[in-house]
Design a protein that fits this description.
Two copies of one chain form a homodimer.
Chain A (H helix, E strand, L loop, with lengths): L11 H14 L8 E2 L1 H8 L3 H13 L3 E4 L3 E4 L4 H25 L2 H19 L3 H18 L3 H21 L5 H16 L3 H13 L5 H7 L8
Antiparallel strand pairs in A: 1-3, 2-3
Helix pairs in contact in A: 1-3, 2-3, 4-6, 4-7, 4-8, 4-9, 5-6, 5-8, 6-8, 8-9
Chain A binds a DNA duplex through helix 2 and helix 3.
Amino acid sequence: MRPIERYNSETAREYAMRAITENIISIDLEPGQLISENEIASFLGVSRTPVRESIQELNKAALIAIYPQRGSYVSLIDSKYVEEAVFLRKVLDIAVIEEACDLATPEDIAALEENVALQEFYLKSNNTKKIFELDNEFHRMIYVAAKKETIHNMRRTIMIHFDRVRTLSMLAVKDTKIVADHGIMLNAIKDKDKTKAKEIVEKHLDRYRVDQEELLKTYPQYFETN
Amino acid sequence: MRPIERYNSETAREYAMRAITENIISIDLEPGQLISENEIASFLGVSRTPVRESIQELNKAALIAIYPQRGSYVSLIDSKYVEEAVFLRKVLDIAVIEEACDLATPEDIAALEENVALQEFYLKSNNTKKIFELDNEFHRMIYVAAKKETIHNMRRTIMIHFDRVRTLSMLAVKDTKIVADHGIMLNAIKDKDKTKAKEIVEKHLDRYRVDQEELLKTYPQYFETN
DNA sequence: TAATACAAACTTGTATACAAGTCAAGAGAT
DNA sequence: ATCTCTTGACTTGTATACAAGTTTGTATTA
């Protein structure tokens, strides 16, 4: 487990949740790894309570398996969940961007434009981490513009299954293309052009195809055998 | 709060979660009502810990609002969330039943047939409660057949917002029509007819339209004022 | 009367103690 | 050597104690 800095503004519970989640996505908590509430609690410098609450939440999202009185494990990567994530993203992102075409206010569009400008800025300096953050934020903003923020929270939760695979594959999605896609999405929303919006979202999602066969060969111990 | 019987098989946490959720849906815990972890804990006969974990989870689903050191309240009915639930159900149910047309096994179909037969049985005895349970189970089985069980869990969570409105409106959806709809859905899946499936799901969902204006006039204290 | 101060009774957040179950290592008997 | 039993160190589940903050009612004072 990798240490994560705690913000002053967050409660112990929020910190524990963020730290554990980030470690699962980054595979610093490895699929299949045994974890202990006490161990994580002392590592993070908080008590069992906030750690336990976080683990319960991640258990509900099928990211941690709890065996009472025996132990808890980071869930192995299960193609079932990865495919559900891909399915959900495809169905929802399209429906939501179409909705955003109808509902986006000038303020929403201004915010999206600022985000894309920042993406272009960090593209020049090859700041992949920043672009990753802005990428997540961009998609969230579309959900907000479509008045679907709660749904976005659900999307984020299930997407962790996919993000984990992305980490393993060190998915070589060209940032250039991603940023360009976002610009096109933005224009589609500005033009209220649902057809174009749907088209570019589909193309965008297709960029993230992962060769699971390859990964399974490289990291067999991380995968659920079905 | 109405007492809920505890099953032998469930943990304190599962019991607390189920009891609180059922009370929120049935409006026995009223929108806007002040609740206390201690009060609920002693009412249910468990300690604060499992109650607290449940409240955290419901807080995440925007069904309970927590004000640290001040108190927690059952969330007022917010049309924002109700509309998100309706949107999600429409988008997902259609996509998922189409998927089920491709993926349903003979076993899945047999299970659906048994469920519909039971619905018809209870229709004769006007057992609305049983039909309600079988209804929920029927839709869940379609998600399972489409290999989208995780997504169904998310659907169920957000649907609580809608279920609460249904309770208030004592929505006079004719059970006869619901059961008939389910039979048609089942046939569409058996025939792998996506067009028919999509059509009947849309018609089915339209039966649940609620006149929010009316409700707002009758129960103004239950609604969020935006 | 009205304003202020204060104490008591609440709230949730966090830490810790205890209960109950699992599992593995090791002693001892066969 | 092998089987059996036991013990102890773990696990999570639950209960409780304490910390920190808010609110409310009630004195007390101007």
